[in-house]
Amino acid sequence: MSEKNTITSLSAAELSTKLKAKELSAVEVTTAFLDRIDSVDATYGAFLAVDREKAIAEAEKAQGLLDSGSAGPLTGVPV
Fold it and tell me: According to the model, what pLDDT value does residue 5 have?
């Protein structure tokens, strides 16, 4: 299993813990989920639109909150 597949199989609680411990960055997590969408959405058609640039920009903002210690419990976890 690749690292990106490992990231996308983690629960929200596990992701939150790893983000706060700086084991993962919000951008790394978001990129893993975007890559997963790219790899399976042609089969499932679950997304009408995916704004990759905006998702990465939001992840960068989330990382800033994580770095400053002012993050909420799910900051950086893609929803």
Answer: 64
Strand segments, DSSP code E, in the chain are none
* DSSP structure string for 44-74: H---S---HHHHHHHHHHHHHHHHHT---TT
pLDDT tens for 24-68 read 999 999 999 999 999 999 999 999 999 999 999 999 999 999 999
Phi, psi of 23 (to 5 degrees): -80, -25
Look-up: residue for tokens 């969408």?
Answer: 37
- Structure tokens belonging to residue 60: 């960068």
- Kindly report the number of other CB atoms within 10 A of residue 55's CB atom: 17
Residues 6+ apart with CB under 8 A from 59: 25, 26, 27, 29, 30, 31, 76, 78
DSSP letter for 37, please: H
State how far the Cα of 12 lies from the Cα of 4, in Å rounded to an integer. Answer: 15
